[in-house]
Design goal:
The chain is an all-alpha fold and 120 residues long. 76% of the residues lie in helices and 0% in strands. The chain has one domain.
Length: 120
């Protein structure tokens, strides 16, 4: 028999994975456009960029949030954290303490929105 705690924990991990994957897909897609436009890369960069943005939209639609606006609000916190991870991992610029503080505040806000008990 599976305990309800395991089910809740598995659902939470799935939800976090969705938001993290969606953020990476959106950031990669937007970066492809950035690279084409701002870094003078080939227009062929737009092809994986468009596919990545489509993947982002599909992943975000898997959110367990009851409303699209709430899913988008929660996603915003994850997007900020993953953008700073991208900044460090891909662009080689280490986030400073204010970046990290701001990201922590945003992620805490996203958690409040996602995990708050909702009345009927």
């Amino acid at each position: 028999m599976v305990s309800s705690g395991f089910v809740v924990q598995t659902a939470a991990m799935f939800t976090f994975a969705i938001y993290i994957a969606a953020a990476l897909a959106e950031i990669a897609g937007c970066f492809a456009f950035w690279a084409w436009w701002r870094l003078d890369r080939s227009p062929l960069w737009l092809v994986p960029g468009i596919v990545s943005l489509m993947l982002f939209a599909w992943l975000l639609s898997l959110s367990p949030a009851d409303n699209a606006g709430r899913a988008f609000a929660v996603y915003g916190g994850f997007y900020i954290v993953m953008s700073l991870a991208w900044l460090w991992a891909v662009e080689g610029a280490r986030p400073d303490r204010f970046d990290l503080l701001g990201a922590a505040i945003c992620l805490a806000g996203a958690a409040v929105i996602l995990l708050a008990p909702r009345g009927a």
